[in-house]
Design goal:
mainly alpha; 81% helix; elongated; 70 residues; DUF2508 domain-containing protein; DUF2508
Amino acid sequence: MFKRKSKLKRIFDDKLRSLMTETRDEWEQAKFIENHLDDYDQEVFIRRKITESRHFYLYKEAKVRNLGRD
């Protein structure tokens, strides 16, 4: 019974790590696009803020789960 719980935790921790990597990449890409625009585009700014918020939400969740770099 306890093995199943630890297996599920490991599976979901791995998913969280992969989501954090994906959102960090999306955030970096959004920052790159925003920095290389000639004019101000509110949609690009909003998209960057959304991806930044997602990344930091996942980061906070990882901190709550004590998800360190293994």
